[in-house]
Design a protein that fits this description.
The chain is mainly α and about 950 residues long. About 70% of the residues lie in helices and about 0% in strands. Helix 35 runs antiparallel to helix 36 and helix 47 packs parallel to helix 49. The mean pLDDT is about 80.
C-alpha cells in the first residue's frame, strides 16, 4: 500500500488547482477548493494564492489566511479584501500588527489601500488621524496618499478642511504640488456643496500651479453648474473648454442634456444631442436614459418608448436606470399595463434590480393604493439579498397608510427598528398622516410626541397633516393650537398649511379670520399660490361676499398670477350656487376672451346649476353647446342630466341619454346606479325602478353587493318588500351573499308595511346566516314598534341589543322617548330623555314635540313651556308644529297672554300657525265673554 501524500504536497496540489480554476474564471469552484486548504499553507503557495483571490474578488476566501511575514503583496491583498468586505476594523488591526519585526512588510501602498477603504465607506473624516499614524511610524506618503485623503474629506463635505490639509501636506512633506487628481478632488468637493465660486477659484489656482485643467475637471464644473440650475454658466464652461483645446466628451454633453431634461427643456436637450453626434461623440446609455427621462417628464411616452427601443440598435443597451425611469413614469401616469410589460421584459432579460429601483417601483404602486403588489415587491427585494434602507421602509409605511392600514404601517415601523434602521421625519410624517386620515388624532399626537423625544423635529408636512386633521375631526381650537405650536418650534409655514388654515376657518364660518390670516401670510412674504387664492375666493363667494371675492381675484391678477381655468371654474361655480346664472355665463364668455378653454368641469358646474333650478331644457342646451365646443361629456355630465330628467318625469329623454352615455364608452358605476334609482324614487316613478336597474345591468354595470343593496333599499323604502324578496333570490343565483345592510333594508320594508312579524322573522334569518346586526338594525325594529304603537314591547329588542354589545345612540333615544310620550307614559319618557341628554346626545325637534305634546294634552303647560325653553337653550330650533302644540295647549286653558307671546314669536321667525290652530283659537276664545280676546289674538297675527 502506497504511503499517503505529505500535507505540503497535498496543499500544493490544492493550491495549484485553485489557481487554475481562478484563471479559468470558475470562482465558485475555486472558493470551495480554498475552503479545504489547511489554515497555514506553506508561504510560497500563499504568495501566489492570496493576491489571486483578492484580484478575483473572492475577498472572503482571501481573509482566511494571514499575510506572509515580510511580504507586502500578501499583506496589501488581505487589507484590500477586508476593505472590500467593509470590515475596516480588522483591516486597521492587521495594518498596525504589521508595522514591526518580524512582520515588517508595511509600506505606503498598505496605508493607501486602507485610506481608499475609509473614503469609499464614507469615513474620509478619519483620514487625518491615519496620516498622523503614518508620520509617527515613519511611513512616507506619496501623491496617491494625498489624492485619496482629499477625495475622502470632500465626499464628507469637508472641502475647506481638505484644501487646508492639501496646503499643509504639500509644503510639509516636500511634495512638489498636487497632481490633476488632487485638484479635481477639490473642484468636485466645492461643486458638491454648491460653492461654484470656490470651485472656479481652485481651477484658476490649478492653472497658476502649472497643472492644466483636463476633461475631468471641466466636466466636474459643467456638472456643478447644472446641479445649481445655472445652465448658461455650464454652457459657457463648455465653450471655454473648447477654447482651451480640451474636446467635450460624452460626459460633458450628458451633464447638459440631463439638466435640460430635468427642467423639461426636451427640445434643447435633443438639439445638444444632435450637436454631440455631429461632433463625432457617440452617446452612451446614460445620455439616452436622460433623454428617455426628459420625454417621460414631458408626458411624451410614445416617443420615450420609441427611443427606449432604439437604444439597443445603436449599441447602448438599456440598464436598470433606463428601465426604472420608464417603469416609474408609466406607473405615475397610470399606464399600468405598459409599466408591467416593461418590468416583465426587464426581469426576463436578467437586468439586475437594485434597491433604488425596487423602492421606486414600490413608491409608484403605493401611490395607486396597490398595497399587495407593494408588499410583493418588498419581499422580492429581500429574496435578492438586498437590505431595505430608511427610504424603502418609509415608502412601505406610506403605502400602508394610503390604503388606511395604519396597523400594518405600525408593524413595519417596529420591523424597521428591529433591523436597526432609524426612522426619520418623513417616516413619522407618513404614519401621522395615515392616523389623521382615519380620524385617530390622539394617536397622531402621541407619535408627534415620540418624534420629539427621539430628537426628530416635526416639519411643515407633519404639522400640515395635524392642522388639517384637527380641523376635520376635533375643531378649530385644536387646529389653531397645533398651528401655534408649529410657529413656536420655528417651523416656516408653507402653502399647504395656509390652505388648510383658510379652508378650516372657512368651513367653521370664520371667514373674517380666514381673510385676516391670508393677508398676514402675504404680508410676511410667503408667495401664495393659485390654490391659496382659489380657496379664499371660494369661501368668500359661499358666504355671499362677492365684492371681497372679486377683490381677491383682482389681487391675483395684479401679482401676475394669471387666472387659469380652475380659478374661473370657482367663480362660475360660486355664481351658479348663488343662483346668479347670467353672471356665470358672463364669466364663461370672459374666460373664452382671455384664450382659456372651458373644460368638462366648467360645463358640469353650469349644467348642475340649471338642474338644481329644475331647468332641464336649459341644461340640455348647455350639453349641446358643450358638444359643439368639442368638449366630450363625461360620466358626471350624463348622470347629472339623467337624474334631473327622471326627477322631472321625462323618462324617455332620460333613457335616451342613458343609451348615449353607454355608446360613448361610459359604463354605469354603482354611484350612477344609486343616483338614478333615487331620482326614480323621488319622482314616484316606482314602475321604472326595476326597468332601469335591468337596463343598467345590461349596459355593463358591475353587479356587486352595493348595487343590490341600493335596489333593495329603494324597493323596501316604498314598501315593495315582495319585489325586494325576489331581488334577494336573484342575488343568491349570482353568488352574491346578502350582508347586514341588505337585511336592514328588508327589515325597514316590513316595518314600513306594518308587517312587524315579518320584520322580526327577517331579523332571525339574518342571525341564522351568521350576520351580525348593527345599531341601525335595532333602531329600525324599535322604530317599527313605535310606529305601530307597540312601544311596550321594546324591552326584548333592547335586551337583544345589549347582548350584542351595542349601546343606544341618539336615534335610539329619539325613538324611545317619542314612543313613550305618544303613549302618555311621562315617567318613562322623561327618564329616557334625562338619560339621553346626560350622555351628551341632542334630541331632535320631533322628540321635543312629542314630549311637549304629551304634557300639553294633560294640561301641564308649565312643564311644556319649560321643555320649550330648554330645547332652544340646547340649540334645537322649534318648528311650526312645536308652536301649534303650545298655542293649542294654552288656548285650551284660555291663557291669551301666552298665546299672544307665541304668535308674536312665530311671526318674528316667519312661521305660520296651521289652519287647525287658528280654528282652535277661534273656538276657544269665541265663547261668551271671550270674543274680544279672540279678535285681539287674530289681529296680533294677521295685522287686522
Amino acid at each position: 500500500m502506497a504511503p499517503p501524500p505529505s500535507p505540503a504536497l497535498h496543499a500544493s496540489f490544492l493550491c495549484s488547482l485553485a489557481l487554475a480554476l481562478l484563471r479559468a474564471g470558475r470562482l465558485s469552484a475555486a472558493s470551495q477548493i480554498v475552503s479545504s486548504l489547511p489554515a497555514s499553507p506553506p508561504a510560497p503557495l500563499l504568495r501566489r494564492l492570496i493576491p489571486a483571490l483578492a484580484s478575483a474578488g473572492l475577498a472572503a476566501a482571501a481573509v482566511r489566511f494571514r499575510p506572509v511575514p515580510g511580504d507586502p503583496l500578501t499583506l496589501n491583498s488581505i487589507i484590500l479584501s477586508y476593505c472590500s468586505l467593509r470590515l475596516l476594523r480588522p483591516a486597521l488591526s492587521l495594518l498596525r500588527a504589521s508595522s514591526g519585526p518580524p512582520l515588517q512588510a508595511l509600506d505606503t501602498v498598505s496605508y493607501n489601500i486602507f485610506l481608499a477603504g475609509l473614503s469609499e465607506q464614507g469615513h474620509g473624516d478619519l483620514s487625518p488621524a491615519v496620516l498622523a499614524e503614518m508620520c509617527k511610524r515613519g511611513v512616507p506618503f506619496d501623491g496617491v496618499t494625498v489624492d485619496t485623503v482629499l477625495v475622502g474629506l470632500c465626499r464628507r463635505g469637508q472641502v475647506d478642511e481638505a484644501a487646508t490639509l492639501a496646503e499643509m501636506l504639500v509644503r510639509g512633506r516636500g511634495i512638489d504640488g498636487l497632481d490633476a487628481v488632487g485638484w479635481n478632488a477639490l473642484i468636485d468637493g466645492y461643486c458638491k456643496v454648491q460653492d461654484m465660486a470656490a470651485a472656479l477659484a481652485v481651477a484658476e489656482r490649478m492653472k497658476e500651479q502649472g497643472v492644466e485643467l483636463d476633461a475631468v475637471g471641466y466636466n466636474t464644473l459643467v456638472a456643478g453648474f447644472c446641479n445649481v440650475g445655472d445652465v448658461d454658466a455650464a454652457r459657457g464652461m463648455v465653450e471655454m473648454m473648447k477654447a482651451e483645446g480640451v474636446e467635450p466628451n460624452v460626459v460633458t454633453y450628458t451633464a447638459l442634456i440631463g439638466e435640460y431634461c430635468r427642467r423639461k427643456g426636451v427640445e434643447e436637450a435633443f438639439n445638444l444631442y444632435e450637436g454631440m453626434v455631429t461632433a463625432g461623440v457617440l452617446p452612451d446609455v446614460v445620455t439616452l436614459s436622460a433623454l428617455v427621462d426628459g420625454l417621460c417628464r414631458d408626458g411624451r411616452f410614445a416617443e420615450a418608448y420609441a427611443l427606449f427601443r432604439e437604444m439597443e440598435k445603436i449599441g447602448a443597451t438599456p440598464n436598470h436606470v433606463t428601465y426604472c425611469t420608464l417603469i416609474d413614469s408609466l406607473a405615475k401616469a397610470r399606464r399600468n399595463k405598459e409599466s408591467a410589460g416593461i418590468l416583465g421584459e426587464m426581469v426576463s432579460r436578467g437586468v439586475v434590480m437594485d434597491l433604488v429601483m425596487y423602492t421606486a417601483l414600490m413608491d409608484s404602486l403605493g401611490k395607486e393604493g396597490r398595497i399587495d403588489e407593494v408588499k410583493d415587491v418588498f419581499q422580492r427585494a429581500l429574496s435578492d439579498n438586498l437590505s431595505p434602507n430608511r427610504v424603502t421602509y418609509t415608502v412601505l409605511i406610506d403605502a400602508h397608510c394610503r390604503t388606511g392600514d395604519v396597523d400594518g404601517a405600525e408593524q413595519v415601523l417596529l420591523q424597521m427598528e428591529e433591523k436597526s434602521v432609524s426612522p426619520n421625519v418623513v417616516t413619522f410624517s407618513s404614519i401621522i398622516n395615515g392616523l389623521v386620515k382615519r380620524g385617530w388624532l390622539s394617536k397622531a399626537a402621541e407619535y408627534t410626541r415620540k418624534m420629539k423625544e427621539r430628537g426628530i423635529a416635526p416639519n411643515v408636512v407633519t404639522y400640515g397633516a395635524l392642522i388639517d386633521g384637527f380641523f376635520k375631526y376635533q375643531g378649530q381650537e385644536a387646529a389653531l393650537d397645533a398651528y401655534d405650536d408649529m410657529l413656536h418650534e420655528g417651523v416656516e409655514v408653507n402653502n399647504f398649511v395656509v390652505d388648510s388654515l383658510v379652508n378650516g376657518l372657512r368651513k367653521n364660518g370664520k371667514m373674517e379670520e380666514a381673510e385676516a390670516l391670508f393677508k398676514d401670510m402675504s404680508g410676511r412674504g410667503l408667495l401664495l399660490d393659485h390654490v391659496n387664492y382659489t380657496t379664499l375666493i371660494d369661501g368668500l363667494f359661499k358666504t355671499g361676499n362677492m365684492p371681497a371675492a372679486f377683490k381677491i381675484g383682482q389681487e391675483l391678477m395684479e401679482r401676475n398670477l394669471l387666472l387659469d381655468s380652475v380659478v374661473y371654474n370657482v367663480f362660475i361655480n360660486c355664481l351658479c350656487m348663488l343662483g346668479k346664472f347670467k353672471e356665470a355665463k358672463s364669466f364663461l364668455a370672459e374666460m373664452r376672451n382671455t384664450g382659456l378653454k372651458p373644460d368638462q368641469a366648467t360645463y358640469n358646474t353650469m349644467i348642475a346649476a340649471q338642474c338644481r333650478e329644475r331647468k332641464t331644457s336649459n341644461a340640455l342646451k348647455l350639453l349641446h353647446e358643450m358638444k359643439q365646443s368639442s368638449i366630450k361629456p363625461d360620466l358626471i355630465t350624463y348622470t347629472t342630466l339623467i337624474v334631473s330628467l327622471l326627477k322631472a318625469g321625462n323618462m324617455e329623454k332620460a333613457k335616451y341619454l342613458l343609451a348615449e352615455m353607454v355608446s360613448a364608452g361610459f359604463i354605469p358605476t354603482s354611484l350612477t346606479h344609486r343616483r338614478v334609482l333615487q331620482a326614480c324614487s323621488e319622482s314616484r316613478r316606482l314602475d321604472a325602478i326595476l326597468e332601469i336597474h335591468e337596463w343598467m345591468m345590461n349596459a355593463g354595470l358591475l353587479a356587486d353587493i352595493s348595487v343590490y343593496n341600493t335596489l333593495v333599499h329603494i324597493l323596501c323604502y316604498h314598501g315593495m318588500t315582495r319585489k325586494a324578496t325576489v331581488v334577494l333570490g336573484e342575488m343568491s343565483r349570482r353568488g352574491i351573499a346578502p350582508d347586514t345592510i341588505t337585511f336592514n333594508a328588508l327589515i325597514l320594508g316590513h316595518c314600513k308595511s306594518s308587517h312587524l312579524d315579518n320584520a322580526f322573522a327577517m331579523y332571525a334569518q339574518m342571525l341564522r346566516q351568521g350576520l351580525s346586526p348593527n345599531i341601525a338594525t335595532f333602531n329600525t325594529l324599535l322604530g317599527g314598534l313605535e310606529s305601530a304603537g307597540r312601544i311596550g314591547e321594546v324591552d326584548t329588542v333592547l335586551s337583544e341589543m345589549k347582548k350584542m354589545g351595542l349601546e343606544p345612540n341618539n336615534l335610539t333615544y329619539d325613538i324611545l322617548v317619542t314612543g313613550y310620550a305618544k303613549k302618555s307614559n311621562k315617567v318613562e319618557a322623561v327618564r329616557l330623555y334625562c338619560e339621553m341628554v346626560s350622555k351628551g346626545f341632542l334630541p331632535k325637534v320631533s322628540t321635543y314635540n312629542a314630549l311637549i305634546s304629551d304634557f300639553a294634552r294633560a294640561g301641564m303647560m308649565s312643564q311644556a313651556k319649560e321643555l320649550f325653553n330648554e330645547m332652544q337653550k340646547r340649540g334645537v330650533l322649534p318648528t311650526s308644529s312645536t308652536y301649534d302644540i303650545l298655542v293649542n295647549g294654552w288656548s285650551k286653558l284660555r291663557n291669551g297672554t301666552e298665546v299672544r307671546i307665541l304668535l308674536k314669536d312665530m311671526k318674528e321667525k316667519r312661521l305660520s300657525p296651521s289652519k287647525g290652530t287658528l280654528s282652535f283659537i277661534s273656538r276657544a276664545f269665541s265663547k261668551p265673554g271671550m270674543k274680544l280676546e279672540a279678535w285681539r289674538l287674530l289681529k296680533t297675527f294677521f295685522k287686522v
